Amino acid sequence: MGRGRPVEILLVEDNPGDERLTREALKEGKVYNNFHWVKDGVEAMEFLRRQGKYKDAPRPDIVLLDLNLPKKDGREVLQEIKTDEDLKRIPVVVLTTSKAEEDVLRTYNLHANCYVTKPVDLEKFIVVVKSIDVFWLTVVTLPPNGSE
């Protein structure tokens, strides 16, 4: 994979166990990345908009977004990202415990780029993370990581 720089990954997840799992999976999957973690939807938007303590935050190449979040739920975050001219091109992968069809449809209607259910065992999760890496970060040509 001829990428010269690490992939900037933003995980929006309130569960420390799932955060650890994601970090491990990325390490196992040898995904060359800078990993950023925020615990709720409000922090996620501050990070993405580089507000407050996140004024020097990098622009993520990909957002892994849990749906059930405190303060501002994942659906609201997704909607805000996808209706924001500056952020809408960032691929968003929705992580959720829900396999309910209406959740899947609702997140796709809000323009999620893909949908992964959890909890998943570590091996399956690693496969998912690797495939995200291969697909989003090598197959797909991402928009330039600047604000156009």
Topology summary:
Elements: E1 7-12, H1 16-28, E2 33-38, H2 41-48, E3 62-66, H3 74-82, E4 92-96, H4 101-109, E5 114-117, H5 122-139
Parallel strand pairs: 1-2, 1-3, 3-4, 4-5
Helix pairs in contact: 1-5, 2-3
List keywords for this structure.
148 residues; alpha/beta; Rossmann fold; 5 strands; 18% strand; globular
What is the domain total for the residues? 1
Q: Can you tell me the residue ranges where pLDDT is under 50 for at least 5 consecutive residues?
A: none
Q: Biggest sheet: strands, sense, closure?
A: 5 strands, parallel
Structural class, please? alpha/beta
Helical content class: 25-40%
The CATH architecture can be given as 3-Layer(aba) Sandwich
SSE order, as H and E? EHEHEHEHEH
How would you write the strand order of the largest sheet? 2-1-3-4-5
Number of helical runs? 5
CATH superfamily: Response regulator
CATH class: Alpha Beta
Overall strand count: 5
Overall 3D form: globular
Strand content: 15-25%
- At the fold tier of CATH, the topology name is Rossmann fold
